[in-house]
Every structure is written in C-alpha cells, then in structure tokens.
Input
Amino acid sequence: MKIKAIRTTPLTVPYTQPIHTSYGPRDAARVILVEIEDDAGNIGYGESIAGPALQSVKHLLDKTAPSLIGCDPRGVDALVQNAMRDILSLPGANLDLFARRVVAGLDMALWDLAGKASGVPATVLMGGPLHDDVGYYAFINGDTPEELAAEGAKAVAAGAPVIYMKLGRGDDLDIAVVAAVRKAIGGARLRLDSNEAWDVMQARAMCNRLAHFNPEFIEQPVPGTSPSALKQVRQAAPFAIAADQAIHTPADVFAYVSADAADVIVLGPHETGGIALLLKAATIADAAGIRLCIHAVPETQITTCASFHAARTIANIDDANQEMAYLLSESLITAPSLKLINGRLAPWEGDGLGFSLDETAVARAAKRAKEELL
Output
C-alpha cells in the first residue's frame, strides 16, 4: 500500500451571514481540499484552512507533497511530522503555527485513506471509541442584542443545551448583548469568547460585570502570549477561564496546566497540526484533570467529521464542543447529515472518516475560490 498521488484544490464556501469576532467579521470558510490516493485507487480527503491566503497554503502543500509519494499512508504521524519539518526548514522561516495549519489537511486525508484501505472507521485506528456520541454547543451570531437574543431563543427551542457567543465589540455593548441573550435563553448554559480583546485589568472588570449572567466560562479574554496574564484573570474571575489562542501544541498545554492558568483547554486539529498531536495534547490535559474542548475555525464539514472521530477517542472530551460548519451556506458532503439531536452528534457508518463528498458543491466552491484569485 503506497501513496500514488496528492491533489490540492482551493475552495471558498460563504457563511449564511458574517461571523463577528474581535478580529473583525468573517464572510466565508476558505480551505484547501487535500486528496491523497493510494495505488489501489482509495482516496482520502482532508482540508487545510487557507489563512492568510489560499495560494500560500496551496503552494506549501504542493511543495511538500512529493516527499509523501511512495510512502505507506498508514504511518500518519511520521508522514505529517516530516511534512512539518519540510516547511519549517525553509530559509528564514518562522512558520510553526502556519505549518501546523498547512499539514492538518494532509493529516485528515491520511486518516481517511488509512481507514478506507483497512476497512474500518478512523476512530478504530485512533485507539477506539470511548464515547457513544459527542456534545456540541450552538454558536449564535448577529449584529445587535435583539438579533443575538432571537438566535439564542431559536437554538434553545431546537434543543441546544449550551449557547456560545462572541464578545469584544465594546464593553457596554458586550454587556447589553449578554443580558439580552441570557433573558432569551433562560437557564440554558452560556459560554462567552472575547478572542483576546482585553488586557488583564479590563478582563477582570468585565468578568465581574458578566458574573451576573452566570456564564460557564469565558474563552481567551486576554492575548494568548502570556500564561501569567491568563492566570491573573483566572485567579480573579468568578467563573472558569478557557485557553484557546494561547494553545497550539502539546507543549503549550503542558505550560498552561503547569502554570495553573486555565480551567479548560480549547484546541483543534488545525492548531496542533493534525489529530495525532491533538490526542497527545488531550492526554496531557487529562493528566491535569482538565477537559479538552474541540476548537473550530473557518472550516467545512470535512473538519467536523475528522474532529468528531478524534473526539470519540478522547477520555476528557468536553460535553459542548465547537462546530462552525453548520453556519455555512452549503455542505461539501452528502452524508452524514451531521444533524445534532439535543446538542449531540451520533456516529455514522463508513470507513475512514466516513463521509461522502458532494462533487457538485465542491465544484461550486472551487469556482468561487478561482474567481477570488483572479
């Protein structure tokens, strides 16, 4: 069993409405579809998020792909780490996080291919499932307190037990938004994310003001460059604090749990550089008694499927993980449906990652990406 070919295709899939963050609005998921074919004709699919630019990620994937040709795709971790080293060895490069995002698509495609070639779900190759299903929260979005409150009420009515929303658009507006949402969702669980928008003093003040609305946690309230800053907020906050942008690697998880700087680790395969390193990071958090919440980025249903397979094998997986693909205007897969029942996603049949690509939707997404690059 050998890798025969690797193909990459830029894709753009718009969101149904812009997603607001403290970094500015996001209008689409831009990814590079990765296809890895073996000598028996099996094809594994993955995706790399295309930041900062579609062409830059595609270029690096195409540059490292030849080193994988002829290799056994079942050695996923070794192949992905070799690809990482190829990128990091470029002259003058300081590309650690960027390289991880690039190779994540190779990693997903290799797991998918290895599972298909072996005739088993990827979860089996990752060590076997520990959970029958996985929980996710509802990510609500909008421009005004009224819009966000309406979204929250709609999500709760649909059975979502946990509501998640972005902050960082101004202190008073943040308070008004949270107040409106809390009133609309009643006693449902609420999680907040300010995406590094505050310094320590502002974060402490905002946590005190937000405590009235009983959030479960606030995610990355301060810049992710300092465990000390997050620890100071955690020590003063009346609720839990989650680390997100601060964490990219298993070593980062070790540093933050050693510093007693976070109650929850939020991390996904696009930050770690693939599923193998995500599982290692989860094990470190588990040793510290801390949950791992799967992180989502501007990604498609391909990543949702890959993350789900990984989440089923993580002992300390959170009960309300992140998932953003349902906010897209269309799906790149025809199956499974990925429909949540009371905030939970059940397993589906199929080898590898177990999804079927929608070739028509992929063609539309490729056409959009091509037009953007003109």
In short: The CA atoms of residues 86 and 92 lie 13 Å apart. The longest strand covers residues 3-19. The mean pLDDT is 94. The domain at 125-353 is CATH 3.20.20.120 (TIM Barrel).
